[in-house]
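Intended use. Records such as the peptidoglycan glycosyltransferase entry shown here are meant for training and evaluating sequence-to-structure methods. They are not intended to support clinical decisions.
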Amino acid sequence: MPIFRKPNVLSLARNRKRLGLAWVGWQGHCAIAVALLAGLCGSAHALPSYDEVRQRHRPSSVLLLDRSGVPLDGVRTDFHDRRGQWLPLDEVSVALQRAVILSEDQRFYGHDGVDWRAALAAAWGKVALGHHRGASTLSMQLVGIIDTQYRRGPGGRSLTQKFDQAMAARRLEAEWSKAQILEAYLNLAPFRGEIVGVDALARVLFQKHASGLNAREAALAAVLLRGPNAARPLLVQRACALLVELGSSQECKRLDEFVHIALKRAAWPWAGAPHAAPHYAQFVLGKLRAAGDDLPDVVVSSLDASLQAFTLQTLRRRLHDLDMANVRDAAIVVMDNRSGAVLAYAGSSGSLSPAARVDHARALRQAGSTLKPFLYEQALAQQRLTAASLLHDAELDLPTGNGLYMPRNYDEAYAGWVSVRTALASSLNIPAVRAIAMVTPDAFAQRLRDLGLPLKHDGDYYGYSLALGSADLTLLSLTNAYRALANLGEFSRPQFFEAAAPSGARSIMDPAAAWIVGDILADRHARARTFGLDSPLSTPFWTAVKTGTSKDMRDNWCLGWSAAYTVGVWVGNSGGASMREVSGVSGAGPMWHDIMSYLHRNMPSAQPAPPPGVEQGRVSYEGDIEPARREAFLADTRVERVRLAQNQPQRVPGPARIRTPADGTILALDPDIPSAVQLARFTAADASGVPVPANWRIDGMIMGQGAHLRWHPRLGKHVIELLDSEGSPIDRIHIEVRGAARR
């Protein structure tokens, strides 16, 4: 009969221990043998050097610097990961370094790339206890990051792949220092979601620089390395355990709340990230892409950081002053006259704008009166006019293929006979239309295109209205065109990068005519009729300046230059809404004045000397039409006295005729203008063109008497008749009115 004995618990434990030690010894010998075999027989795959790894590191955003190296803005170019700059180890918190080593590789400074003790412990734990514990050192993990051959696949790594990785880690340790390995690991390891590297981790999750991470933040960062996508409760548990090991158990208090807040910041903007030139950064990077250039980590721009900061501050401060006038947006461009470098660039008002991402410096807007200087320069260069020539500022009806063009002045008043100097400086509309009739719209449109302005149509499309700025242009191109005036007709492309080679300059305008235009725009007495003597357009140093306002006050401009700089300002609304009682002198003008004053706070600005071809002398006007003054002329056009022609039109006997509109004219109602203010103007004149009174009948109804008749147009076809004193028709035309119905 067999005898059964009660098991000796102590003996069983000893047997298990003995068996375990035997197994461990066997497993260890096998592991060492396989490792040696892999080291001897495996391929010696070359690993990149520390310098190569650091050089090929690319942040996910390109950093824009100003001309002296000051960070201005960043543009994200990689939307797979969020990576920051490569940080040297001495810029990473010591608390984070300790936490990572304690969590990931406690014997980091004592092994040669493979921690055999940890590997055997992990193997035993998996076989005997069913625990899954990693034994990869920081060096082994780094090998998998910097070399795709050693990265973990979807099904994990085979035993051979693990030993290949281990041997690669040993080679890495032989070639790199421990500090280089730890630094590279912290800069390349994924932490959470798309966040890669310690710079992105610190500035996104913790909203601070990596050098300032404390024990609690370091513990959370370290456990994120172990489980980048682990659930919050597990992260809290692991972080608290690590804090206890670090001797900071008191930091476990309210740790769950801290982790919750940190993880919610995963999509936040970077802390401390510069954001002073967002539109300019996007613009210049787009130019690099268009040129086919590889995007560098850092782009050195032409901007000046201090001027850029002042420009943004001025824009926001002045817009606050215009809040009650329904003004929400603005854009400013500052350029260096000589080099063409863009020194400041504000594309919008930022948070004040309902469309902050729209770059209004490159958006097409109606130019208003800002084109008049180029028109008068062309007329002066062609010697059709001089600065002393007289133009008639009175009601004007010009027949066109689409009906009558009836321009009006901004203030709905007329000055009569005025000189070109007064007409340009005071921005009178009727004289400008008379000037473009001399130059022709087509020739003027070509001149504007030569100056880099993006006109989409020819001069016939715009007609006479081009003199008053009916074309859509950009602030950037218009500012550069004004720079050509500042350079006496020399045109060159803007420069956007500090190291850019200067573009070839070419002469577009007559230097003498351009100088005279600048002299007119600097004359505060000549502009006094419209702007007064004391306005934001006046500066204590020499400047030339022009304003402009588009139809229905949708766009407001102020552009001008000094001896060294050209400044352009646009004010309006991104959606095209009209402003309330805002003109160039009250909207864009104050911004222009502030920036010019800042630029010349320590530097004078004197008028450039007149170029060859400019003659100056005293001129007077018969009948005191304008006060006598010293005037500038192109050579061979100088006069000493100006008078109106004596051969005024004499009436030729004969019946009156309808002079305007022409027979068959088609009038179009503008749906954006109240019908009550839309009027057609008819004129009766004799054969010589002198207006004569007559009786007017429209569609059989007597409408009035006189040389002129104003009539509210009605849709449809109409018969316009001129009657003599007996009521008999002496002239008849047919017109048609099209467009929106009268309200």
